[in-house]
Amino acid sequence: MKKLIFAFVFSLFLGINHLWAQSADKIEMADTMRANGKIYVVVAVLSIVLLGILIYLILIDRKITKLEREMK
Amino acid sequence: MKWWKIMTIILLFYTLIGGFLLPVPRLAIVNESIRNLYFHVPMWFGMIIILAISVYYALRYLRQPTELNDLYAVESANVGILLGILGIVTGMVWAQYTWGTYWHGDPKQNASAIALLIYLAYSVLRNSLEDAQQRAKVSAVYNVFAFATLIPLLFILPRLTDSMHPGNGGNPGFNSYDLDSTMRMVFYPAVIAWTLLGWWIVTLRVRWRVLQNRVNENALKVESSLLA
Question: Tell me, what DSSP letter sits at residue B172?
């Protein structure tokens, strides 16, 4: 069951490579931000925030597990 | 750590990195803000799934009144409300930039506000009852009715009138645009990621409440043994 769910979820990522090509037309997008690489700054900052929140969540999880063991 | 928690973390990072860096269709009006699809919409999908779990546990409680069934029902409802609030607030920000106002009065916007109020009333109802068993039973019944009103409010009524939301009121859904398969590759994992994160929080809250109940029970035992 676990393996099946994992396989299903990661199959959603397949086929990334051939979709990079993008037709440029007149619609305004954040192309400059991408060209000069500033977008990576945004992604880095958000990743750090997400990482921090997830570490906090894991620490709470561990603390509860410890208490559960003590209560038994 | 459980396997699904590791999957949650991987999928969240994939959502964030893929959501910002993978290509998206170039569309007028929404422009780059189309990437909100990976963050705003999963709040609602997550809310629906978590609230469905909540009503499942409410029904289980009505058949088999146990502490855990009640705790899962109420904590799922709480996380569902949290996701709903995040959904409505992120939607307002997005609406300001694409529709021109924070509150457009769009049927789906109004309906989701009503749905949230119905679920907030669930919390009010629960907290207004003193007796634990009565509280659990009454809120379980209310939960079923709340979920039953959620479905027409979010899925049926907005489709019957003019709505600015994609896929409603004759508007095409996002999936009918070009290059939709790239967006789906981030969108589906994003829905799973945010829903699992919500479920993780539910389990933490339930485990914490169980511990709290044990502590209270032990305190009561000590108290009664002292009185005897």
Answer: P
Q: What's the rounded Cα separation, in Å, for the pair A8 and A2?
A: 10
Residue A19 predicted with pLDDT over 90:
no
Q: Is ipTM > 0.85 here?
A: no
Q: Where are the domains of chain B?
A: 27-162+177-227
| Residue B24 region by backbone torsions, left for phi larger than 0, else alpha for psi between -120 and 50, else beta | beta
Question: What's phi and psi for A11, nearest 5 deg?
Answer: -65, -20
* Of residues B44, B197, B38, the one with CA closest to residue B115: B44
Q: How many CA atoms lie within 13 A of B54 on its CB side?
A: 32
Cα–Cα distance measured from residue B176 to residue B31, given in angstroms and rounded to the nearest whole number: 16
CB contact under 8 A, B7 and A50: no
pLDDT digits (tens, 9 = 90+) for B112-130: 999 999 999 999 999 999 9
Closest residue, chain A, to B33 (C-alpha): A29
Distance CA B58, CA B52 (A): 10
Closest residue on chain B to A60 (Cα): B204
Q: Does A64 lie at the interface with B, CB-CB under 8 angstroms?
A: yes
CB contact under 8 A, A43 and B17: yes
The H or E element that residue B190 is part of is helix B180-227
